[in-house]
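Just wondering, does anyone understand these tokens?
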Amino acid sequence: MSDNDDHTGFTRPPRNSRFKPGQSGNPKGRPKGTRNLKTDLDNLLRKRVQIREDGEQRYVSRQELVLLALFERAAKGDARAATQLLGMIMKLEPKETRKEEPAPLTESDHDIVADFLRRNTPNTQES
């Protein structure tokens, strides 16, 4: 290293306060049992709520409740809701792979392949 190692400043803490080799910057780490955003959101969406549909009460998850509300808005003509709903459907639908059958070879195709093979295969009679 150079003589400038003793200078402190931006991105250069004093030598005595730098992490020693093998020493973690977060020795305690994340506390056990701490949930992340995905876990909390999943728990919220799984909780069941009571709704009245067609005059009857039933229980649905909050996730289904949100989707029902989005579907109702789309059915009433809300273009943004319809776009969101169709976007979700497109993400969840598996992509269809079209298996197109190759076009049958024409006589000129056969002539081209035969000419290629004639020019590029070694002549075994010359040996």
Observations:
- The first strand starts at residue 48 and ends at 53.
- The mean pLDDT is 86.
- Residues 62-75 form the longest helix (14 residues).
